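Explain this protein:
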Amino acid sequence: AQETSFRVALVAGGAAGTAVDVALFPIDTVKTRLQAPEGFLKAGGFRGIYNGLASAAAGSAPGAALFFSTYELMKQRLTQGTEERYHPACYMAASSMGEVAACMVRVPTENVKQKMQAGHFKTNGEALSSIWNARGALGFYQGYAMTVFREIPFVLIQFPLYEGLKKRWSQHQGSPSTPIQSALCGSVAGGIAAAATTPLDVVKTRLMLGRDSKGVAYTGIASTFRRVYEEGGVGRLLSGVGPRTMWISIGGCVFFGAYETSKELLTGVLD
C-alpha cells in the first residue's frame, strides 16, 4: 500500500475529525446526559442539545490531526522490516501512541464540552473561567489518565480490526479498498470497540463532571468505578451504550470515509 505522508495525515485527520464531531454532536450529548450522575432528564434531557459544540469543534481538528499523523508515522516505522504476521501488533502500538498524543488536545476541550452538555455551565466563557479558577491549567486535564485508559483499549480493538477488514476486502476484490469500503470497515470496527469500552467511558465522564448528584467529588479511577457500580451494577456501567455505539458506528463511517477521501485528494498535493 502507498505510504501516507505526515502532512497528508495531519490535514486529512483534521478534516475527518471535524466532520464527525460537528455532524453527530447531538448523539454525543444524549450519551453524556445518560451517563451523568443526576440522570438524563436532570442533566438537560433533549434541551440544549448543541451545548458545548464550539468546544468540541475547537478540539476535533487538532486532536484528530495529531492522532492520525502520529499513527501513520509510527505505523510506517514499526511495520518496516517487520514480518507481516506481526503487523496487527504494530497497528496496536501505533494507534496507542496516536491516542496519547491526541489526548493532550482532546482532554481540555472534552472537559469544557461535557460540563456544558450536562448543564453545569451556560456559556463557554463561564466554563473556561470556572475550571481555571478552581484548579488552573490542571483543571482542564481532569480525567486525562482515564481518557487515555479508555482510548487505548478502544483503539487496540478498533484499528487492527479496521486494517484487517480493509485488507481482507482488498484481497477479495483484487484491488485497494475504496473510501466507501474503508468507511464501512471503520463503522463495524468502531461499533464493536465502542460497545466493549462503554464502562470505561462512563467512568471517564463521571471524573470529568467532577461530582456525583449529592455533590461528593470523584477522586480516582478505581473509586469512581466502584461508586458507579454501587449505583446500579453492570447496567449503570453500560449507561449510554446505545447512543455511544450508534454515534461511533456512524462516526466511524464518516470519519474513515472522510479520512480516506481526504488522503486521496491531498496525496500528491501536500507530499
